[in-house]
Predict the structure.
Amino acid sequence: MDQITTVSSVFSRFGDHIGTVLGILTSEVIEFIKFIDAHPQLLALSQIAENLCHILPALEKIVTDELDADKLGVWLQICEYIITQPNELISHFPDIAISSDNGKQKPFAKLYEKYPLYITLWFRHPAAELQNRYLLLQTHLLLTQHHFRWLTETADKKYESTTNESTRLIRQFADASKPEKVEELQQLLEMLPDVPMPMEAFLQLVEELEADYSFYPEPYGKAIDVLRRMLWYANEHRGGFSRRNNRTWQAILSREAIRTPVIAKDEDGRAINFVIEAVHMPSQSEDEERAAKRAGCAPGEVKSGVEHLIISDEFETGQSNLSPLAGRSPVSHIKRTREKYKAIALANQLLPTRWETLSLHEVALLLKEISDLVRNPDKRRKYQYSDKVCNAELAALLTAIYWTGNPLKTVIGYRFCLSREKLPKSLEPTDHRYIIDSDEWALGSLSPDYRTTLSSKTKKHLYDIQHHVILHTQNKTNFIIQQWLRGYKELHDRKYKSKMLFGLDYETYQQPVDSFLKTINKKYKTRLTKTRIATDLFHRLYRYSGDVVESMLITGQGHYLGMVPLHYSSPSLHRLQEVYSGTCQYITQAVYLELSKPVKEAEPNNKWLSTEKTMQIHAGGRHYLKPGHVAQLVVDLRARFKKCLKFAGFNDYLVELHNDYTIYVAEMLGFITGYRAVRDPLDALSQLDWETGFACISDKDDENFYNARLVWIPQIGLKQLRYYQRHCQLLAERLILINPRLATQLFSHGDLVDSSVPFLFLLQPNGRLLSLRPSEIERRLRNVFPVPVNVNRSYLRNRLRELSCPAEIVNYFMGHWENGEEPFGLYSTLSPDDFKRAIEEPLLQILEVDGWKVIEGLGRA
């Protein structure tokens, strides 16, 4: 690099002129000239300044502390003046506006080695759509040369070779005099970023390209190596690498944290109350999350293992809120906070002894007192607790609160209709309708927040998620609702066609409900609240089924422990009715036993949907495959592989055979383990224990491996992986002349822990490696299996649940847990052997029904 050690007369005059016109210091202008390593006569500076008007703003976005933002602003001001006042400058500096006659490099004949940076900044890419990427490449070149200049001046290090190679390469990207070279490098340029990113992130991207055999070693090997060394040396000067400037990490840090309410404020109020929110950082960038969502993953499924809690204490003093530290030292406050965190871990286990769950004694007293409100017609018409709400209406209101598991504010919006045919086409999850003729409750299906629609081809493979969840208690509690409806118009002179079960406002109903509960509490020394009676059913449903998602779908109430599993859960309406009616009957029988009264059985209604019908209706996530579609996929993949075997000797035979074989193995592995849609699943065989069949999976995890999970792979899967390993080792013999570098690594494929070649991989027609990305799987299966790549997870979760695998085990299998639920944590009582025994039989049954079989690749007998 030709360092400018003295300021030429042209530089002095230019600095004085610009300084006078713009009112800046001459030294700032000279510093700018040195920064771009300018030609002594400022040759063709006009075009370079025009390019710098785009480069300098990008530079401001990628620097950390190397360059002052104010300094960059002054330099940008200089460039804008140069391109807006050309005539005034030409009279003083005629060489400034020299340009090429043919749009090529003529102004700099025989000057490339003297002023490599300056000349490279003059170039523009001939393709307008690639110019932005090229400008960002020039931006990083300018920044790296700034670091090299500093190292040369202070540390006496020489970087002429790297400078010459990097500037020559970047000129070749856009040298219009050599169109064949521009065309050759175009694909590589298209892989480079089109938005500003930190130098470390740029280096990481280049290293990823270097590791990708699609681009390395030829035809881009040397070019990638030059870029990598240029960025590496500059990063070395900047003090190494920090996670802060990692490309993906930077994108993650810029995202808003995920705030999840863990403990909400009890609307009934307490003298001392607190609210707890859990705050997680996402472990994926927005781009990664969008790609995962397209593949069928739950958005935000994998959060950072580090959880922060925000505890908001509320002290109701009647005057002002006191500090949470009031009366406690900082040390005791920290200790108290830690105890709350431990309490949350315990609360996440949803144990039946929690405060939210009523005791059997409390339930019995509550239901008895509600029933007493309507025991005879005279008492039914009385206004015992309010002058606006009669006993019949209050009893119906309390019945709806308890048996639908919803709070008072939601219940007062309930409606009724005469039959199922009168239901609207769609309902919200909290929009309950009481159906008179069939004595049922209908509500909308709780589902993930989908913002895209499925194609018609995809819908043919998946269950059509039902908009209505129809439930019946199979006890006589709804008799109270029916009694209220009979006297509906007579009592309040309301129009029957209004369809509102309860027509008054919240404040009007709150007073009699509070009075009723206060009377019971005083009479029986209980602690009933509106919140407790509204949430009791949810926890009893969970206790009955073991699946928090089913509780959510039945009540229409979300729960933070079930929002991710909901994305993959699509239970049938038959299952939901079974859980709901089973829970209701269990409560009824227990209450009658507690009250020492004979159980009154409710008769089934002949207008209920048949079992065959309810088995075909599903609610929840929309990615559950219909029966037979996985089996058909297996048939299609095996047929494709066998067809390829018949064309041995054709040009692309080896590549097509390997790719078809890899897709089959990848799909089998996905439908055995529930692998998420990730690049290069099962990165190495070292993650697998061949003796026990256990494998450690860390798909879509972050650096703390909080979401790493244990899965069990049956013998059919282990045998298939061994065949694939042997296939790849034999493949190396065929590739030795085509791609010797890849072939050398494949000879020991699967045996090395740190191999740069992933265990599952595809091949390009030229014999180079192609990563097994979800997009590649989707593209290759588009015609036979047009569904999201992650559909295997929904399929496995639902099939395992249908085969009576405990929901807790299924969640562990899927990798779904929160603080306190870790399956193999320090205090967990679950052993891997118990986990295997629970999962083995249903998983083997699924594989047998779907027809998965071991097939051999190369080396077949």
